[in-house]
Every structure is written in structure tokens, then in C-alpha cells.
Design a protein that fits this description.
about 100 residues, mainly alpha, about 90% helix, elongated
């Protein structure tokens, strides 16, 4: 029973880390919109970190992770932020 609790705590921590990275990527992408290539690159790196952390949670937690509402919310944020970054990159390319 104690092992299950440890896995759940670890999964929860991984999902929190992923969400935090993705949210930071969203904020950074918004700040970079239209002009700042350096911030845009930082947002991409934050998003990749969040994506890797989500993947780690999925790998360690299996079905329990992917059925977790926190995982699903972070995954949706990841997708939305990826789109936001692609639009910001396109806008920056149009400006340059």
C-alpha cells in the first residue's frame, strides 16, 4: 500500500511540474508575441520541459496517469500552448 501512495505522490509532483512549465511557456510566449525571438525560444524550451515531464509521468504512471484529470488538463494546455507558440513564431517571421 505504501508503494502505491509513493507512486501517486510522484505522479502528482510530476504533473505539477509539467503544468508549471507549460504555464510558464504560455506566459513567455505571450510576452514574446510580435517581437522577441529570445523570449520565444525560452517559451519553446519551457514547453519542451513540460512535455518531457508529462511523458515521464505517463511512462511511470501508465493508465493511472493518463486518466488523471490533472494530466489531461496539462496535456490540453500543452497542445494549446504549442499552437500559441507556432502562431507567435509565424507572427515574428512576418514582422522580420
Amino acid at each position: 500500500m505504501e508503494g502505491v501512495l509513493m507512486v501517486q505522490q510522484t505522479l502528482h509532483q510530476l504533473l505539477q511540474q509539467a503544468s508549471k512549465s507549460i504555464q510558464e511557456a504560455q506566459v513567455t510566449a505571450s510576452e514574446a508575441q510580435g517581437s522577441n525571438e529570445i523570449l520565444l525560444n525560452q517559451a519553446v524550451q519551457l514547453l519542451l520541459k513540460g512535455e518531457q515531464t508529462l511523458e515521464k509521468a505517463r511512462h511511470q504512471g501508465g493508465t493511472e496517469a493518463t486518466e488523471n484529470s490533472q494530466f489531461q488538463q496539462a496535456y490540453e494546455q500543452l497542445h494549446d500552448t504549442r499552437q500559441q507558440l507556432q502562431e507567435a513564431q509565424q507572427n515574428n517571421n512576418d514582422v522580420l
